[in-house]
Write a structure and sequence with these properties.
alpha/beta, eight-stranded parallel barrel, UV damage endonuclease UvsE, DNA damage, UvdE, DNA repair
C-alpha cells in the first residue's frame, strides 16, 4: 500500500441511478441462525451454500468497483456478514463441507488478489459485541468473532505481519471499568495474526481518545472524529493536536485509518453547511448527546469535510454515513475541489 490519501465507504454499495440488479450483485446477503436451525440439515445447507457463494461473488465485484474509482476513493470496509454465522454452532458444521470450503478459499484468494492489484485498502469492523475489555462468555464470543475476521483476511491473502497493505479489523474498547488493562488482557488472548490486524476505536461513552492513548504501544488506534466531538462535548480534533502524533506512532509505520460522520440532517435542519456545528448551542436548543450520535445520510457539512481534508495529510478516512458510497463520493469530490 502506498501513502496516497484515501476516502472509503462501509460495506454496502448504493447505485447512483437506483439500479436494483447492480445493487444485488455488489452487496452481501445474510440469513439468521434461527431460520437455519428450523430447517432440515439439507435445506439449511442449501440455503447457506447459496448465500455464501453469492456473497463471495459480490465481495469480488465490490472490490473491482472500488478499484475502478480514482485513487482517492480506493478504500472499502468489507461486510462482516460475508460468511453468515461462521462461528455459530448452527452454521459452523455446514461450512466444513469440502466443496463449500474450497469455494470460499478460492474466491477469497481471488478477491484479495483483485484488491492488491487495484490498490484497494480493506478493513472490517466486527459487531458492537466484539470488544476487548470485557469478561466471561462475552469475552469468549468477542475473541471468536475477531478471530473469524482475521481468518477472512488470511484467506484474502493478508495473513502475515503488521497490518499488511493497511488491512485492519477494528473494534471498540469495551467496559470502561476495566480500563486500559482490560483492553490489554483481551489483546493477550488473540492469535498473533488477529493481534497484528486488530485496531481499537475511540467511542462516545466508554473509551474516548484520551482513555485509549495508554494502549497506543499495544495496539493501533483508530480516531473517530465524530465520536470525539461527542465525548469531548464539542471539540474538533485538529491535525496538529499532539495526540495525533501518538495515534500515528501506534500504527508503527503503516498509514493510519480514521472515521468520520456527521449528525443526522433533520436534527440540524437549516444549519449553515459552511460552519462547524456548535455542540453547546445544539444542546442549549434542546438536543441530547444521544440525538447527535446518529449518522447522517450524506456528508452535508462542508466545514467538517474541510477538516477531513486537512486530516488526510496523516490518515485515510472511512465515511460512516447511511448513503455509503454516495456520501464518500460527495466528500471526495469536495476534497478534490478544495484540497487542504
Amino acid at each position: 500500500m502506498n501513502d496516497t490519501p484515501r476516502i472509503g465507504y462501509c460495506c454496502k454499495y448504493i447505485s447512483p441511478d437506483g439500479d436494483a440488479t447492480r445493487d444485488r450483485a455488489l452487496n452481501v446477503r445474510t440469513v439468521t441462525m434461527a431460520y437455519l436451525a428450523r430447517q432440515s440439515p439439507a435445506v439449511a445447507f442449501a440455503k447457506l451454500d447459496e448465500i455464501a457463494r453469492h456473497n463471495l461473488s459480490a465481495v469480488r465485484a465490490q472490490i473491482n468497483e472500488v478499484a475502478a474509482r480514482p485513487p482517492l476513493e480506493r478504500m472499502l470496509r468489507l461486510s462482516s456478514d460475508l460468511l453468515p454465522g461462521f462461528t455459530h454452532p448452527t452454521a459452523k458444521p455446514l461450512y466444513a463441507d469440502h466443496d463449500l470450503r474450497a469455494a470460499i478459499e478460492r474466491e477469497l484468494a481471488l478477491a484479495g488478489d483483485a484488491a492488491r492489484a487495484g490498490d484497494v485498502r480493506l478493513s472490517m469492523h466486527p459487531a458492537q459485541h466484539a470488544i476487548l475489555a470485557t469478561t466471561g462468555r462475552s469475552l469468549d464470543n468477542a475473541i471468536a468473532d475477531i478471530e473469524y475476521h482475521a481468518e477472512l483476511f488470511a484467506l484474502l491473502g493478508y495473513g502475515g505481519g503488521w497490518h499488511p497493505h493497511g488491512a485492519s479489523v477494528n473494534v471498540h474498547g469495551g467496559q470502561r471499568a476495566l480500563g486500559a488493562d482490560g483492553i490489554r488482557a483481551g489483546l493477550a488472548l488473540l492469535s498473533d495474526a488477529a493481534r497484528y490486524l486488530v485496531t481499537v476505536e475511540n467511542d462516545e461513552v466508554s473509551f474516548g481518545l484520551d482513555d485509549l492513548l495508554p494502549v497506543a504501544d499495544d495496539v493501533a488506534l483508530v480516531v473517530d472524529i465524530h465520536h470525539h466531538w461527542i465525548k469531548s462535548e464539542g471539540e474538533y480534533l485538529q491535525p496538529d493536536d499532539p495526540r495525533i502524533a501518538q495515534v500515528q506512532a501506534s500504527w508503527r509505520g503503516v498509514r493510519p485509518l480514521a472515521h468520520v460522520s456527521i449528525s443526522r440532517e433533520p436534527l440540524l435542519d437549516g444549519h449553515d453547511a459552511d460552519a462547524l456545528p456548535d455542540y453547546a448551542a445544539l444542546l442549549a436548543a434542546g438536543l441530547k448527546p444521544r440525538d447527535l450520535r446518529g449518522h447522517s445520510d450524506m456528508m452535508w457539512n462542508r466545514a467538517v469535510n474541510d477538516l477531513v481534508a486537512r486530516h488526510l495529510a496523516w490518515a485515510d478516512f472511512e465515511v460512516e454515513a447511511k448513503h455509503k458510497n454516495l456520501a464518500s463520493e460527495q466528500l471526495a469530490d469536495q476534497v478534490r475541489t478544495n484540497p487542504s
